[in-house]
Amino acid sequence: MRSSICYKSRTMAKKKNATKRILYIVGILVVILIIFAVIGSTTGLFGNRGGGMNVEVAKVERRSLTQVVTASGKVQPEVEVVLSPDVSGEIVFLGVKEGDEVEQGQLLVRIKPDFYQAQVEQATARVSQARASMSQARASMLQADLDVKRSEELFKKNVVPESEHESVKTQYEVAKASFEAAEFAVASAAAAEREAKEQLYKTSIYAPMDGTISQLDIEVGERVVGTTQMSGTEMMRVARLDQMELEVDVNENDVVNVSLGDTAAIEVDAYPERSFRGVVTEIANSARVTGTGTQEQVTNFPVKIRILDPHNYAFDASMAPTLLEEELSPDSPQNPQFRPGMSGTVDIFTATVASVLAVPIQSVTVRDFNRVQPEAETDEEGEEAEGEEVAANDEEAADEEEEQPVPAQRMEEDLRKVVFVVNDGKAKMIEVETGISDDSHIEVTEGLEEDLDVIIGPYSAVSRMLAPGNAVQTGNNGGPQGNN
Questions:
Q1: 3 state DSSP class of 22
Q2: Is 421 within 8 Å of 428 (Cβ atoms)?
Q3: Residues 435/443, Cβ–Cβ less than 8 Å
Q4: Which residue, 356, 342, 340, is CA-closest to 437?
Q5: Do 256 and 221 meet the contact criterion of CB atoms below 8 Å apart?
Q6: CA angle, residues 22, 26, 28, in degrees to nearest 5
Q7: Which of 92, 172, 332, 379 is the most buried (most CB within 10 A)?
Q8: What is residue 407's DSSP assignment?
Q9: Phi and psi dihedrals of 427, rounded to 5?
Q10: Rounded distance, CA 312 to CA 241, Å?
Q11: Which residues contact 64 (CB under 8 A, 6 or more apart)?
Q12: Helix crossing, 162-201 with 114-156: angle to 10°?
């Protein structure tokens, strides 16, 4: 009895498992059919009463376009001077801290001068010694001159022999040369003294211009190395923070569109809700290459954009009468405080055209004209041939063409820019010439007329699937026009 019950239980379990498997398989098939139906309906493979592919269209319209080049970079002062000492030694005085305002000629740093003072004293002593030697050489030269004159008179009277007279003259020449050498020694010692004094003067470092201490890398008691030895120690930087700029890297493909004087809109990460005006002031001639020799090699050109809007302004109550009322209004935005190294993005407006024919960027694509038949030939192929004789002639011509070898030129790509327009329910391919573009539209200089319906989607259809003469239907009854 018990065995029969177990047998029935196993039979029922097997039936339940079989039912579950069937339901599982049916569910998978249903999901696959639904996906296939959605894809087919979207791409126009089936489900369209008109037998055409569903597409989105937009009107060819006239609008103003501004070409924009976007790049990122860092905020930096237009003028920034790096201060390094000319002499080495220990810092005994530091008169500023980072962020201080300084004036031209203000004492910033003093290096311990003891060694250089001793050098000056030694150089002064050498000058005195050289001058004493010169005085002695001058006296010897004068004495030798007197001896020559006396010997000359005695020689004329035949009192002294000629050999003695020549010896006296030689001694004078030697004394004269010694005096000239002493003069040069004095000049050399004086130059060494001036150099020692210059080195002593360089132990005090002064501000080269009015500005702000933007960076300070030293402390009192620290030893620094002068620029006469290697590159020297960078002590601090003095910058004009009221004249800031953004240095960005512009790709080599875009830099050709950028010109000096182009206006720009600057966004700094520290002020995300604000935009600042700028102007291009410098375009590098030399590229900045990263990843050389690798697949990630990138070639950029540094471009500098001056920030035109007021910034880094410290409010002073004494200046209130000179400010406009809107500047003092509590509703006006606070003047930004830009600091060197802040990150920012710039949109450079390189060119602007007004009232030109434009289409959405996604409507312009590329086709190989060696593989795509022109529109006229496609229309003729879609019509039925009239008369058996015409059909026979076409067939014979086709056979002859197949027998002929394909020229090498036809194997090369002939890529041209085209758009597809809707014409009597069919896609018509039109070759176009384009101009500048903004972030959404591109200028069409040749090939289109105003108010034509151009196909802008789906992307797969515009980029690959559409061919001249394909049946299409606008599922959106005109579609998004893309007009603002």
A1: helix
A2: yes
A3: yes
A4: 356
A5: no
A6: 120
A7: 172
A8: P
A9: -85, 125
A10: 7
A11: 352, 353, 354, 355, 356
A12: 160
Contact 350, 259 (CB under 8 A): yes
Query: What is the rounded CA–CA span in Å between residue 265 and residue 275?
Result: 6
The tokens of 127 are what?
């000058």
Tell me phi and psi for residue 341, to 5 degrees: 100, -10
Positions of E strands within 330-393: 343-360, 365-368
Range list of β-strands (E), 225-272:
236-239, 244-251, 263-268
What's the distance, CA 230 to chain centroid? 31
Which residue pairs from 128-134 have beta carbons closer than 8 angstroms and sit at least 24 positions apart in sequence? Answer: 129/189, 130/182, 130/185, 130/186, 130/188, 130/189, 131/186, 133/182, 133/185, 134/179, 134/182, 134/183, 134/185, 134/186
Q: Is 175 left (phi over 0), alpha (psi -120 to 50) or beta?
A: alpha
pTM for this predicted structure = 0.64
Short-list 409, 431, 438, 429, CA closest to 469: 429
Q: Which residue has the tokens 């037998």?
A: 51
Note the helical H segments in 158-238. Answer: 162-201
The C-alpha R_g of the chain, in whole angstroms, comes to 45
Q: Which residue type is seen at 89?
A: G
pLDDT in tens, the chain (484 residues): 445 544 455 555 555 667 777 777 878 888 888 877 666 555 555 544 555 788 899 999 999 998 999 999 999 999 999 999 999 999 999 999 998 999 999 999 999 999 999 999 999 999 999 999 999 999 999 998 898 888 888 888 887 888 888 888 899 899 999 999 999 999 999 999 999 999 999 999 999 999 999 999 999 999 999 887 677 899 999 999 989 999 999 999 999 999 999 999 999 999 988 999 999 999 999 999 988 888 888 999 999 999 999 888 754 434 434 444 444 444 445 788 899 999 999 999 998 889 999 999 999 998 888 877 655 444 444 444 444 443 444 445 445 444 455 454 455 778 889 999 998 888 899 999 998 888 889 999 988 888 889 999 888 888 888 888 888 888 654 444 443 3
157: its two tokens: 């009277």
For residue 458, cis peptide bond before it (omega within 30 degrees of 0): yes
The rounded distance, in Å, linking the Cα atoms of 227 and 208 is: 17
> How many helices and strands, by DSSP H and E, does the chain display?
7, 23
